[in-house]
Amino acid sequence: MGKGEAAALVLVAVLWGSTGPFLRTGAAGLEEVRCRGRLQQLLAEIRFLGLNYKYVVPFLLNQGGSLLFYLTLASADLSLAVPLCNSLALIVTLVTGRILGEDIGGKRSVAGMLLTVLGVTLCVAGS
Question: Are 18 and 93 in contact (CB under 8 A)?
Fold first, then answer.
């Protein structure tokens, strides 16, 4: 795996991981949207989210990460790209959530992050 591919995959992980907590924050209040009928409810929820920049901006960044992932898969080793992106995205999600004041757990979360970093390091070193 080249440096460019690795950098792209790390960027994907950052885009995916950092947007999750912001999507949760942006979707706050969605449960308050009430309409009669299923279709009207669905349309009201779509309108609520679509007009909320706190939801739309992280959503678009997340989708940009998905597009970059798709483009990077053309040249990256699939058996390395998928675990690298998903595991690093998990770590970025936990760190971003913590920065935003979410409860991410205690020592077990930190231990999990360290084991994830160890696993990714072993995958990269083995390829």
Answer: yes
Tokens at 90, concatenated = 């998990």
Indicate whether this model's pTM tops 0.90.
no
Q: Which amino acid is at 103?
A: D
Tokens of residue 105, six digits: 């757990």
Question: Which two three-digit tokens encode residue 29?
Answer: 């209040």
Query: Which residue, 22, 113, 17, is CA-closest to 65?
Result: 17
Query: DSSP letters along 41-61, please?
Result: HHHHHHHHHHT-HHHHHHHHH
Cα 22 off chain centre by:
10
8 A C-beta contact, residue 88 and residue 10 = yes
Query: Could you read off the pLDDT of 79-100 as tens digits, one per residue?
Result: 888 888 888 898 898 889 889 8
Q: At what angle do helices 53-73 and 78-99 cross, to 10 degrees?
A: 160
